[in-house]
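I would like you to sit down with the pair of lines that follows and say whether tokens and residues agree.
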Amino acid sequence: MNKLRALIVDDEPLARERLRSLLRGEAGIEIAGECGSGTDAIAAIRGSPPDLLFLDMQMPGCDGLQVLASIPAENRPAVIFVTAHERFAVDAFDVQAVDYLLKPFDRERFQTALRRVHEYLRTRDPGRLPAAAAGAPAEHRNERLTVKTDGRLVFLKAGEIVWVEAADNYVVLHLTTGRLMVRETMAALEARLGTDSFVRINRSALVHRDQIKELQPGLHGDYTVLLRDGTKLPLSRSLRGQLGKFAEGAR
């Protein structure tokens, strides 16, 4: 299996060297190149698209958001923004960045970002993920989810999410402490959450496995998923053949 190809984009030479140093210790990733400006990055991406993009937010001439805007959404690599400025975090998650590294960061935080990339790519396109990355321990995934709602950034633990409900271009997060409406598609959020802890039960609902209490049979072979808080949700007929997978969460 090929390694993930990473492109480093930052106008500061020391910042690029820091990323190179951290990436040298990652067996499943190779450095495809580096750029010191946004315009150079656009040319490099068009010439040889990377799997992973480390992208500075603020650069002379062409910033990180402009770089992403030049790439069709369906062709974008996994993106980790690397910046010294907190104020760009909302913009980063608006364009569905996988993570946002705030300088300075340590190796542990860097590796957390890489685990999120592996999960994102594993869900979106398993064929692009090296075998070494695909075997990443499940306990390291889904550690934290960052969402934007009402102009705020909210940081959630995966265990706080009971289930997720699709609502057009929004999703409603049903939490142990209430609800949040977030402007994000179900598919994008499902990719960020991964499939270790969450399972799709129908077109409009994604459920935390640990919140599944029962699978209740109905008429004509239908099933209802009963959650621990009493919520009842229909199990899609197209997923009836995967009852064993749902049963993993019903403890």
Observations:
- The domain at 4-135 is CATH 3.40.50.2300 (Rossmann fold).
- The chain is about 25% helix and 30% strand.
- The longest helix spans residues 107-124.
- Helices lie at 13-23, 38-47, 64-69, 89-94, 107-124, 131-134, 186-193, 243-247.
